[in-house]
Amino acid sequence: MPAVLMTAVSKSYRRRGRPAQKALDDLDLLVEYGGVHGFLGPNGSGKTTSIRILLGLVAADAGSGEIRLLDRPVPEGLPAVIGSVGALVETPLFFPGFSGRLNLQLLAEAAGVSRNRVEECLELVDLSDRAADRFKGYSLGMKQRLGIAAALLKQPRLLILDEPSNGLDPAGIRDVRELIRRLGRDGRTTVLLSSHLLPEIQQVCDSVSILVRGRCVASGAVADVLASRESGDVVVRIADPAAAAAVLQNAGFAVSPGEGGLTVHGVADPSGITRTLAGAGLYLEELRRVTPDLESAFLAITSDPAAGGAHR
User: Fold this and answer.
1) Which of 5, 110, 122, 232 is the most exposed place for a label (fewest CB within 10 A)?
2) pLDDT score for 86
3) What is the average pLDDT across 231-247?
4) 9 sits in which H/E element
5) What angle do CA 270, 274, 276 make, to 5 degrees?
6) Alpha carbons 295 and 198: distance in angstroms, whole number
7) Which residues contact 146 (CB under 8 A, 6 or more apart)?
8) 201 CB-contact burial (10 Å; exposed 0-12 / middle 13-18 / buried 19+)
């Protein structure tokens, strides 16, 4: 069984005097064990609601579909597995006048965790050198890393992080990115990472799910999601682009200027470009496919009316 399974899960919020608003609409979500799974979507797409349902903080609609966390039904089976789940869902709350180490020791004592594990977690998040400093003197990035250390105290099989880089400066983002990358490589903990920082997701995640209006509209390995959005465009760099464009157009290729050379559109087999140009005595300096990054794929998917696109 996967680490997280949600099948046809819905959640509506009702406000007095207003029609019910659906936060989740028959959501399907699958997170396999191991690595880092990115959880993406525009604001209001249902990411945080999904996480809160998984953790038992809010209930799905009555009659909603199946929810399983670490192979236990939610919410009935949560008590059996919640000790194997670590989560950082909001800004972590610690005693500002206490050191980072003392804050973790207090949490560890309440959870029945040894002090040795506190030191291991401080080392994991690169805070050992600042563990004796007061929490109120920490940068925002250090506070987030201490929050992740607290979530790791019980050696969770599943770690859920909701926007852990939110509000951080570039150095803090880099530190959190490297930490998540290490956790994903470790193999002992599955990480579910919700974030709007798409370049960061692409750098650390093995797989992704993209939500639009409470539905999952794309899911799978990052490489597969990107491949599904490939346009078939090919960049051609050549000494005489005008002559190359004329030859290619005469051969039936769709060509436009681009990226310091030419862009050839809708190409199934790039070797045909090489043969066509060589036959006219024109030789390539560069030939490469245009591959989308996660940001462009995300924008295309969430803007697609067929996917219920809500991105604005």
Assistant:
1) 110
2) 94
3) 89
4) strand 4-13
5) 110
6) 6
7) 92, 94, 100, 103, 104, 125, 127, 135, 138
8) buried
Reading the block at residue 230, the tokens are 């490939």
Q: What is the CA radius of gyration of the chain?
A: 24
Which residue in 301, 300, 294 sits closest to 206, CA to CA? 294
- Cβ–Cβ under 8 Å, residues 15 and 284: no
Give a three-class secondary structure readout of 190-222: EEEEECCCHHHHHHHCCEEEEEECCEEEEEEEH
Coil, strand or helix at 145: helix
Contacts for 110 with CB less than 8 Å, ≥ 6 apart: none
Q: Does residue 25 or residue 195 have the better pLDDT?
A: 25
Beta 66-69 vs 4-13: how paired, if at all? antiparallel
Express each pLDDT in 110-119 by its tens digit: 999 999 999 9
Q: What is the pLDDT of residue 296?
A: 77
- How do beta strands 4-13 and 21-31 pair? antiparallel
Report the 3 state secondary structure along 221-284: EHHHHHHCCCCCCEEEEECCHHHHHHHHHHCCCEEEEECCEEEEECCCCCHHHHHHHHHCCCCE
Position 190 pLDDT exceeds 50? yes
The count of other CB atoms within 10 Å of the CB of residue 112 is: 9
- Per-residue pLDDT tens over the stretch 5-38: 999 999 999 877 778 889 999 999 999 999 999 9
Q: What length does the chain have? A: 312
Bridge partners of 9, per DSSP, are: 27
Q: How many CB atoms lie within 10 A of CB 121?
A: 26
